[in-house]
Amino acid sequence: MKVHIFGAASSPGIANYALNRAADVYENKYGSDAADIVKYHFYVDDELISVSRVEEGVNLAKQTIELCKDAGSDAFQFSSCVRERHSTRRGVLSMVSSIFYPLGFVSPYVLNAKKTLQHLCTNRSDWDQPFPTSVEQK
Hints:
Blueprint: H1 11-30, H2 32-40, E1 42-43, E2 46-47, H3 54-71, H4 89-97, H5 107-122, H6 133-137
Antiparallel strand pairs: 1-2
């Protein structure tokens, strides 16, 4: 699996599966201690373990971090499919309403469309009337 839906009910289970798989794959490279920490002391992205000596904890932390780094990158990516919409008040509302952005990364881009919609509503444009090219260029 290369991608999964952000916030899905299955997300914690998928994250734990990916961690366990990484521990299995990289156990020979980083040792069974690091793999056991990932397998039995992690939940999603939280680790909880206690050791008797500071040096042991630092060494295990370094091994665990390296194991997780080798497993893959920690990157947030998204893709979109833009459908052509009519240049009308209804089309702008449809486009703005169809965007799902739970973390708000795309808010600066959506804001321009919302401002255009606000302008069209303030001017009481008809829902299906094409708007002027001056508005369309914004």
